[in-house]
C-alpha cells in the first residue's frame, strides 16, 4: 500500500485531525504559560525596581552617586538604568541621557522611551523606569529594559519547538500505522466477502479478537450473524425442497400407477371408480402439502395486521371446545377445558383459532383411546403472561426432538406410522410468530405439553390511536 492510499484512509485523516488539534492545544497552552510567566516576571522586576529606588533614595547624595556608579559599571549585559538629575533635569551621574518626557515622579514603575549614554546609537528604547525625588530635590531614576522578555520568549519558543515537533512526528507515524493496519484488515474483509460472493457461504468475515472488539469487529460480527442466518435459511430451503420432493413423489407415483392401470381397460366400472377416487385422494394429499407450504410462507413473510383486533382468548377456547369435544368422544378420549380469565389480546381471531385447533387436533390424533387431552388458558405464575396450553397423554416428544418439531416436514420416529404431512406444527409456529407468541414444548409424564406464551417483550401490541394498521 503506497502513501497516497494511506493518505486517503479515514484513520489517517483522523490522526491528522487529532495532530492538528494537539498542535493548536499546545500553542494555546504555551501562549497561556508565556502570558502568565510574562506577568509574573514583570511584576517581579517592577517590585525590584521600586525597592531599589526607595532604598537608594533613603541614602545621602554621595552614597547615591557611589551606588549608581557601582550599578552602572557592574551591568555587563547593559539591561539596568540608574541616573541622578537636578530638579531642572540636568544629569548629575548615571547612564540615562535625560529625564524621559512626561515621566511621572511618583516612585512607581512606568514604561517610557529612554536613551542610554553608553549606547547612543540604539536611540530611544522602551524601558521600565521608576522616578522619585530625594530629600535635596534631585530626581533619582532606576529601571531596566525589556531584555528579560526576549530571553523568556526564546525559552518558551524553544520548549514549544522541542515538544511540538516530536509530538507531531509521532502523531504522523501513528496515523500511518493505524491507516496501514486498518487497510490490511479491510483487505482481509474484502477477500472474505469475495469468497462468500463466489458461493462459499460457509465463509465468515474475520474478527481480530474474541472480545467485543472495535467497530470493524462489531460490524464483522453483525454480518457474520446475518450470514449464519442466511446459511441456516438456505439449508432449510434445501431441506424443504428435498422433503417436498420426497413427500410428493410417493402420492404422485401412486396416482400415476393407478391411472396407468385404469388406462389398460381391464377393470370393471366400480373398480375403475375406486381407482380414480384413490388417485384423486393422492392428488388432494399433494395439493394439501403445497397449500400448507404456501400458507406457511405467506404467514412467515407477512407483517399485515388487517384482521387483528382486541379479543378475549376465552372465546377462542370455548369455540375449540365446542368443535373438538364430539371428536374426542368418538375416539374415547377425555377432553377437558380449564379457563382462568386473562387480559384481552391483540390477535387475528381466525388465525389464532387455527393454531390452537391444530394443537388440539394433534393431541387427539396421537392420544390413544382412554387417554386424556386438556386445553387450558390462564396467566403464568410470576409475570402474568397469557398461556394457552394443550396437554395430552400420548407418546410424547423426546427431549432431543423438541427443538425440531416446528420445522417443516419433521416427524418424530414415534409417529411416522400415522397419517400426516409434518407441516401442522410449522403452521402453528408461523401463526404464533405473527402474533408475537412463543411456542414451547414440554413433557407431561406421560404425554406432551404444547404452549403458546404471550411474552411481554414479544407479544404484538394494539396500535395506538390514530395509527393505521398495515
UniProtKB/TrEMBL annotation:
Coiled coil: none annotated. The chain crosses the membrane at residues 12-35, 155-180. Keywords: Kinase, Membrane, Phosphoprotein, Transferase, Transmembrane, Transmembrane helix, Two-component regulatory system. It is found in: Membrane. GO terms for molecular function: phosphorelay sensor kinase activity. It is an enzyme of class 2 (transferase). Residues 180-235 form the HAMP domain. Pfam families: HAMP, HATPase_c. Residues 243-443 form the Histidine kinase domain. GO terms for cellular component: plasma membrane. InterPro entries: HAMP_dom (IPR003660), HATPase_C_sf (IPR036890), HATPase_dom (IPR003594), His_kinase_dom (IPR005467), HisK_dim/P_dom (IPR003661), HisK_dim/P_sf (IPR036097), Sig_transdc_His_kin-like_C (IPR004358), TCS_sensor_his_kinase (IPR050428). Its EC number is 2.7.13.3. It catalyses: ATP + protein L-histidine = ADP + protein N-phospho-L-histidine. This is histidine kinase. It comes from Nitrospirillum amazonense.
Amino acid at each position: 500500500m503506497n502513501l497516497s492510499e494511506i493518505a486517503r484512509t479515514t484513520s489517517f485523516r483522523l490522526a491528522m485531525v487529532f495532530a492538528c488539534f494537539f498542535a493548536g492545544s499546545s500553542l494555546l497552552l504555551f501562549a497561556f504559560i508565556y502570558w502568565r510567566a510574562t506577568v509574573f516576571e514583570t511584576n517581579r522586576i517592577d517590585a525590584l525596581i521600586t525597592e531599589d529606588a526607595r532604598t537608594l533614595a533613603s541614602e545621602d547624595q554621595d552614597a547615591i552617586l557611589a551606588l549608581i556608579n557601582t550599578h552602572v559599571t557592574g551591568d555587563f549585559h547593559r539591561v539596568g538604568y540608574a541616573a541622578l538629575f537636578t530638579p531642572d533635569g540636568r544629569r548629575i551621574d548615571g547612564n540615562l541621557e535625560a529625564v524621559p518626557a512626561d515621566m511621572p515622579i511618583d516612585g512607581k514603575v512606568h514604561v517610557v522611551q529612554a536613551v542610554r549614554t553608553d549606547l547612543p546609537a540604539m536611540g530611544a528604547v522602551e524601558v521600565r523606569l521608576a522616578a522619585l525625588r530625594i530629600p535635596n530635590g534631585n530626581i533619582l531614576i532606576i529601571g531596566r529594559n525589556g531584555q528579560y522578555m526576549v530571553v523568556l520568549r526564546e525559552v518558551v519558543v524553544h520548549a514549544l519547538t522541542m515538544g511540538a515537533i516530536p509530538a507531531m512526528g509521532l502523531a504522523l507515524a501513528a496515523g500511518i500505522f493505524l491507516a496501514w493496519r486498518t487497510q490490511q484488515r479491510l483487505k482481509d474483509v474484502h477477500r472474505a466477502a469475495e469468497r462468500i460472493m463466489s458461493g462459499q457461504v460457509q465463509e465468515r468475515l474475520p474478527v481480530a479478537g474474541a472480545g467485543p472488539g472495535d467497530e470493524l469487529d462489531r460490524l464483522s460480527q453483525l454480518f457474520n450473524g446475518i450470514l449464519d442466518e442466511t446459511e441456516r435459511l438456505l439449508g432449510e430451503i434445501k431441506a424443504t425442497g428435498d422433503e417436498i420432493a420426497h413427500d410428493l413423489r410417493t402420492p404422485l407415483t401412486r396416482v400415476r400407477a393407478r391411472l396407468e392401470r385404469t388406462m389398460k381397460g381391464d377393470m370393471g366400472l366400480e373398480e375403475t371408480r375406486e381407482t380414480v377416487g384413490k388417485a384423486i385422494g393422492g392428488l388432494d394429499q399433494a395439493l394439501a402439502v403445497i397449500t400448507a407450504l404456501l400458507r406457511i410462507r405467506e404467514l412467515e413473510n407477512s407483517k399485515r395486521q388487517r384482521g387483528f383486533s382486541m379479543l378475549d382468548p376465552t372465546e377462542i377456547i370455548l369455540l375449540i371446545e365446542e368443535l373438538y369435544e364430539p371428536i374426542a368422544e368418538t375416539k374415547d378420549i377425555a377432553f377437558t377445558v380449564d379457563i382462568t380469565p386473562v387480559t384481552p389480546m391483540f390477535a387475528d381471531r381466525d388465525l389464532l383459532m387455527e393454531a390452537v385447533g391444530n394443537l388440539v387436533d394433534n393431541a387427539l390424533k396421537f392420544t390413544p383411546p382412554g387417554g386424556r387431552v386438556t386445553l387450558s388458558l390462564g396467566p403464568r405464575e410470576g409475570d402474568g403472561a397469557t398461556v394457552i396450553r394443550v396437554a395430552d397423554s400420548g407418546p410424547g416428544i423426546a427431549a432431543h426432538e423438541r427443538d425440531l418439531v416446528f420445522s417443516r416436514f419433521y416427524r418424530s420416529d414415534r409417529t411416522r406410522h400415522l397419517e400426516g404431512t409434518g407441516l401442522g406444527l410449522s403452521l402453528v409456529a408461523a401463526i404464533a410468530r405473527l402474533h408475537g407468541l412463543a411456542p414451547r414444548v414440554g413433557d407431561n409424564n406421560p404425554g406432551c405439553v404444547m404452549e403458546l406464551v404471550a411474552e411481554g417483550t414479544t407479544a404484538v401490541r394494539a396500535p395506538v390511536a390514530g395509527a393505521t394498521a398495515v
